[in-house]
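Question:
Write out your own:
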Amino acid sequence: MDKQLDLLQGTLDMLILKAVSLSPLHGYGILLRIQQISKERLEIQQGSLYPALYRLEHHGWIASEWGESENKRRARYYRLTAAGKRRLQSEAERWNQMTAVIAGILQTTPEEL
């Protein structure tokens, strides 16, 4: 049985913000961190990641600088900005509210109507 889950629409930005809130990471490191903290249940494709990184940086939620990766290659490292921290907090609150509403709907029985 496939243990990976499909990423829900609109959650990639929030996951990236969370990953870089834990420590500055280069792009591939962000992919690995999301896999790690999801216990290998989520796998982000590079084709989705890099446009999202550019978008988040454009909004000012992450900042980047060049550095050297673990394998001695030049890599762009991303870190969370103060605006990104606020955005992550608001996105997490919205996510938690939405999942609570959906959980309530799914638990509704005919007797409750």
The domain at 12-112 is CATH 1.10.10.10 (Arc Repressor Mutant, subunit A). The mean pLDDT is 92.
